[in-house]
Specification:
The protein is an alpha+beta fold. Helix content is 40%, strand content 12%. It has five helices and two strands; from the N terminus they run αββαααα. Strand 1 and strand 2 form a beta hairpin. It is elongated and about 50 Å long.
């Protein structure tokens, strides 16, 4: 399949989602040896900010954890407190990935923190609302 064919197929899928009002807009980039082509469909515009919500867990966190597991540096059974002593020692890496840690989904009023360090302190001080799978 050529890059142009891939681009046409991807664009068609996203345009259909916009037609069906599944999404308001889509921006995507297609990267190949010839460079990067950027696409903005529907209400998407260059420079727009997006709330990726829970995608960071799937794309970033889970990928990073599995890479570290493959290197033998971490296990799903490891306790978070082994890596971050101030954190809840009962919670495992697996608990975090499966959303069974008992930790709240969000910190209250995240905009109140004046620095990344202050925010991190609040994260580490957060206690589980219930004990998950432990």
């Amino acid at each position: 399949m050529t890059t142009a064919e891939i681009e046409e197929k991807i664009t068609g899928i996203f345009e259909e989602a916009i037609r069906q009002k599944t999404v308001n807009g889509v921006s995507y980039a297609l990267v190949d040896q010839g460079g990067v082509s950027r696409h903005y469909l529907g209400q998407a515009e260059p420079g727009q900010f997006y709330d990726l919500a829970s995608l960071t867990k799937v794309v970033g966190t889970a990928s990073g954890i599995f890479k570290e597991m493959a290197a033998g540096k971490i296990s799903l059974k490891d306790r978070v407190g082994d890596f971050f002593p101030a954190a809840c020692s009962a919670v495992t890496v697996k608990d975090l990935l499966l959303h069974t840690s008992g930790l709240p989904a969000d910190l209250d009023d995240v905009w109140q923190y004046q620095s990344p360090g202050e925010f991190w302190e609040a994260v580490l001080a957060t206690k589980p609302l219930f004990l998950g799978s432990v």
